[in-house]
Amino acid sequence: MASVQLIDDERSASALADLLNGNARRRPVAVVTIPAGRTKPWIDVEEIAREAGSLADVYLMPTGPFTWDFSNRMAEGTQVYGGAGRVYPVGHEWATDLSKSPLRFAFNEADGERATQKLISDMLRMAAAAGLLHSVPTRELRKVDTTVKMVVAGRALVDVGNLFPAAIAEELTVEDVPIERIVAAGLRIEGWYDAESNRVDIRQSLRASGEALAEYAVGDVVLSKVAKVRNGNAELVLYPQTTTPPVVVTVLRADVTANHEDDLRTLMTVGEVIPARVTTTGPDWALALHDVDDAEPIVSAPSLLPGGPPWLSEESEHSEVDEPEAVTSLAMPPPAPSPVQVIEPPSPTRPPAAATPRPSPAMLDRSRPGPTPQPASTPPAAHRQTESTRGLLLKVDGLTAEIAGLKREVLNLQTQMLAGADEREQLRFLLDQAERRANKAENDLKSTRARLRKATSTSKSESPAGNGPRFADPEQGFRYLVLTQWATRTLPSEQRNRPLADFHIGPRFLESLEGLEGIKPEKVADVAFEIVTGLAPQLPSREVHHLRTGSGGDDPVRVRDDGAIAWRASLQVNTPSARRIHYWVLPSGQIELARVATHDDFEI
Prior knowledge:
The protein is 28% helix and 18% strand. The chain is an alpha+beta fold. Among the domains are: 5-130, Glutaredoxin; 142-205, CATH 2.40.50; 209-311, CATH 2.40.50.140; 474-598, RelE-like (YaeB-like fold, 2-Layer Sandwich). α1 (10-21) runs parallel beside α3 (65-72), α2 (45-52) packs parallel to α4 (109-129) and α9 crosses α11 (521-532). The termini are far apart. Residues 299-390, 438-474 are annotated as: Disordered.
């Protein structure tokens, strides 16, 4: 457990600011503040210190005069005070990019619980990014072989033989992968248990990328995660960094859309999970998005642990964000409380009322000096008095006026505090509404970009006939489509070793293609390319098998008089009346395309 260091004077506050702005720091620093008027923070600083261990330093700072000295030494927007908390990562990027060190607010107990968990997550994520997990531990670790009991709040709880379960931290396992995509309840895991932090490290059990991606084949439609997007290219992650470096594939504009003027930043979003077709397997992976159909089955993403859940899952096109009832107009915030009525006691003198200052964080600092009371005027004496009596009366009148002034100031400050509290609640309400609208807009943006990407990827097949090549001979037109698919899906460096073999087109093929609705000729040509090149039998989605004389598994295989054997492959799956393609494999090995038909049609 890390020790909590208290910042309680100007010297220590200045030293903390110098530490954050200097170059000597090697660990993240968590700073939790105590709001004015309280002796303890809403944020659980002890829990943060327990989770920090040797990975971060933890500081606690009350709101006071030295708080402002700390703030004055920090870059604009990077300060922390008034009960909030913040974790500062290693380096100085946070000084110009505030998203690198988010401020976590806490105005009550419930806020404190949420802010505590967010700060712990920030701290562990920053420690992992700083490479602190790769350092050799100075204490003994115990190897455990146990089962995941449950997954909750970014943690997987496992039984290590203690009274309380140990935890697997999401942030310390695989970067930017939620814990439910790493482990699941009931999964058997192996790892190293750290008694001091009560955590289990399972990183050494993570699967290497070569093993995890071994089941992918050319032509498979797989899931990938967008890591970077530029105008003309994007980086897609097939597998994250585990015991091996991440598998990141760069796709060009031509791999995504048929329009060479499209900006990829309008078609995909960083963090979005999108399907892509494998055109080349590892180690030099290649992907394409422009020819992926909605009806095609998607191969499940590999697991990060043996027997674990897939590390990626398809995103729903519909937003599941809990949005306000009316998103076009903002709901009215809660009403403000009635102002406090100031009733002033009568006094022999009445100093002029001072202008009410605007509420500010400094008002919450009870240690700041109060205003100097105004001197009271002396009433005229009705009778001649001795010097001592006159002095006492003047003192009484002065104290009476001072008390009245202080009471007025107290009541004014109470009014300002109520107004400030109400303003804070209204701002929190508006912030909540804005966050919900932003989340909905982000989900809508992802959905719109996905639809736009699909629309642009199919635009080449839906373009007007006048814009593309036209053939008087339908057979030449179909052969052109097959050649186009071969040239699109085969890299120039591989075309010499993987040429498009000659094939025959049967007398009923083009007629059946023209009469069959629900599928485009480009899709049929794509599958024909896979059949001719021998790729189709390697793709599970093609479901290649012999075409028999009937639907029974024991029915004999169709064999033609010249020795050709009939085969069948899937053009579509998981759709009503899914389309199939029938073809002959001649004794010479050449392919003869026979017919396209529906699922229940076995003619050839």
